[in-house]
Amino acid sequence: MLDNVRAQGFNSIRIPVTWSNHHGAAPNYTIDAAWLNRVREVVGWALADGFYVVLNIHHDSWQWINTMPTDRAGVLNRYNALWTQIAAAFKDSSPKLTFESVNEPQFTGSSGDAQNATLLNELNTSFHRIVRQSGGNNATRLLVLPTLHTSAEQARVDELVSTFNTLNDPNLIATVHFYGYWPFSVNVAGGTRFDATVQQDLTDQFDRVYNAFVTRNIPVIIGEYGLLGFDRHTGTIEQGEKLKFFEFLGHYARSRKLTTQLWDNGQHLDRTSFVWKDPELFAQIKSSWTTRSGTASSDQVYVPRTGSITAKSLTLNLNGTTFQGLRQGTTDLVNGTDYTVSGSTLTLTALALTRLVGSRAYGVNANLQARFSTGVPWRISIITYDPPVLSNATGTTAAFTLPAQFRGDQLATMEAKYADGSNAGPHNWTSYKEFDVTFAPDYAGNTIALKPEFFAEVNDGQRVTLTFHFWSGTKLTYYVTKSGSSVTGTVS
Known about the structure:
Blueprint: H1 2-7, E1 12-15, H2 33-48, E2 52-56, H3 60-63, H4 72-90, E3 97-100, H5 113-133, E4 143-146, H6 154-167, E5 172-178, H7 182-186, H8 196-212, E6 220-225, H9 239-255, E7 259-262, H10 279-288, E8 295-296, E9 300-304, E10 312-317, E11 323-328, E12 331-332, E13 339-342, E14 345-348, H11 350-357, E15 363-372, E16 378-385, E17 389-390, E18 393-396, E19 400-405, E20 411-418, E21 439-442, E22 447-450, H12 452-455, E23 464-470, E24 475-483, E25 486-490
Parallel strand pairs: 1-2, 2-3, 3-4, 4-5, 5-6, 6-7, 9-16
Antiparallel strand pairs: 8-10, 10-14, 11-12, 11-15, 13-14, 15-16, 17-19, 18-25, 19-22, 20-23, 21-22, 23-24, 24-25
Helix pairs in contact: 4-5, 5-6, 6-8, 8-9, 9-10
């Protein structure tokens, strides 16, 4: 697996290690020999492959380190004992091995920000002291220190800057994590698009760590990045919007001299076949390491199944590139006949769309590639659809699905409101519910599931109006009423 990851072009790898269940009791907390040898083996393989390697204390952060506010001495003794052993085991390893003090540090039951900062500073400085005093290559080894929660909020960054100032060590690296603007990252509150708000959130966070550290020649690692929705389903965020997010993230991280490490729980690179489950996503990520790619306002053009076909327009996001044409497979489309470009507006002609949809079967009839002077092409899917059709249904709060003939369309989001206009269901500060947590489309099964998590926060006996928003622009209304554990759904 390491060989294959290296062959994909990755230069560094973070190896998260959980030590909690692999060491003995106090006061020595002796690490299990077999476990330590296995960690050594994997680190050795990674170094042999030429990676820079980050080794850390990972899930322990919320398994026991988080109890530090009420068990300061106990946590510190255990933490110090582990790092003393880890430092000794790896003191002669290549300088390309780096140590990270703790993953996503967090504290339960603290008195607030001031105590959190004090405790994290104590962990980071204790870690620093132990490693530096252990000798060998550890005397100058690069050490990675996180902010609280690995957050890039200004206050958290300032706290870590204070620690760096005190340590005054040129071989330190700062780290934060980045999963994007939360409504977009999980698709809630109508966060379906990579819009100006999502982009501003990214630039603000990257700018903060750039200004605090990089301008002072302190490296920064984005030790994890991705989208939180990926932890459940990689389809939580629409493909084109997802691609725009990763294109911009790679570009802006590079412009701010930040190293990025993609978080993969197995949803991206298959761990046995070593094939990317979404090759289009990885192509965009890899391209962003060195250049920009052009994108567009959408990767979908919807054409109705019946009636006349009209021209359709998209807005090109050139991102510093120049547009070079449209291609279907190996065939170039003809400028002026198949499409026109006016400024940043790309228009597909009715003539071209008529040819591309063919017999107008539901779904994707053709894929085009918008080509730019640099980067990867932007796929544009030509889709035939009719407005979806929903049907009445009965079920329970534990299992409710409504029949849905999608007819080529795709679901973007769902709103839920009571008759008085107030918001229904979880996150009741917004009418737009969380994709794949409260509702989930099943395109193969022709259903939309409303999940137990949704009904758990719906008032009994109150009719809820659901508005389903589809990517074609279609909106459909549906009604559900919960009565005890029974649910009735109707189209009227």
